[in-house]
Amino acid sequence: MRAWGDNGNEQVGITAPTIVTTPVQVPGVTGAQVVAGGGHHSLVLRMLPEFALQVATDGTGTGTVTPGGGAHPAGAQLSLVPKATGNSVFTGWTVDGAAIGHAVPLTLTMNANHTVIATFNQPLSFCDVNPSDLYYEAIRQLSARGVIRGFEREDGQLCFAPNDGTKRAQMAALIARPLGWDQEDHNNGFSDRNDVDDNLWRNVGTLAHYNVARGYKPETCQALGVGTPCYGPTDEVVYAQVV
Predict the structure, then answer these.
(1) Quick one: average pLDDT of 81-91?
(2) How far is CA 77 from CA 80, 98, 107, 181, in A?
């Protein structure tokens, strides 16, 4: 954009001189769409650059994302909200090829062209898990993410046995898996391994490293006749508590 003329009020868009006889480029103005001038002012309507948003869905389930794809001005802050349809479960976002978790809403700044993929999956249906159960939604979420898989009963039905017992060391492995920690190896400082296998004991140490597994209180360790800190890896909890 170029301007000239009376510049007594800097209406040409530059600081000097007071009269501009030759058209000069107005600094800092890009994307001009419409201009207008008066005796003591100049106006310009600018169009900010726009970036394209592409939104898609993936997985075995179905769902939608609001807002969908389209063009958005540079710097626009978008809040993307997934909505699962039918029995589906929303399980995560991928932005420009990178998995970034499952925060809802997803806040996205339009500073470039972006491609967003929302993944929806179908949860497993277990013969012994009912909508009225307190842990029903948690089991749906974890089965849709492939964290829990259940077992096939003799009659061919897929079941979960939520009230069956499991060991605290197995609980650590089930927690580490969805967090992506199950292959990490950290020093395990607990005193009471109790013949737990290497894989489970490694997961207990990893959860302790991230301050998720804190073990028992010192007085409990003392009552059990073991040193501190202790974890009780072979003590039992039920599957529903693990979830």
Answers:
(1) 97
(2) 10, 19, 7, 32
Distance, CA of 110 to CA of 74 (rounded, Å): 6
Contact (Cβ atoms closer than 8 angstroms) between residue 93 and residue 128 = no
- Summarised one tens digit per residue, pLDDT across range 177-219 is 878 888 899 989 999 998 889 999 999 999 999 988 889 999 9
- Per-residue CA distances from 82 to 99, 138, 206 (Å): 15, 18, 32
Helix, strand, coil percentages, rounded to 5, for the chain = 20, 35, 50
Placement of tokens 């869905």 in the chain: 57
Residues in contact with 14: Cβ distance below 8 Å, sequence separation at least 6, in sequence order: 7, 20, 24, 26, 27
- Residue 116, strand partner residues: 55, 95
Q: Given CA atoms 183, 189, 194, 195 in this order, what sign does their dihedral have?
A: positive
Per the model's pLDDT, the better-predicted residue between 240 and 8 turns out to be 8
pLDDT at 156: 94
Count the neighbouring beta carbons within 10 Å of the beta carbon of residue 218.
12
Please state the separation of Cα 111 from the chain's center in Å: 19
The rounded distance, in Å, linking the Cα atoms of 239 and 243 is 6
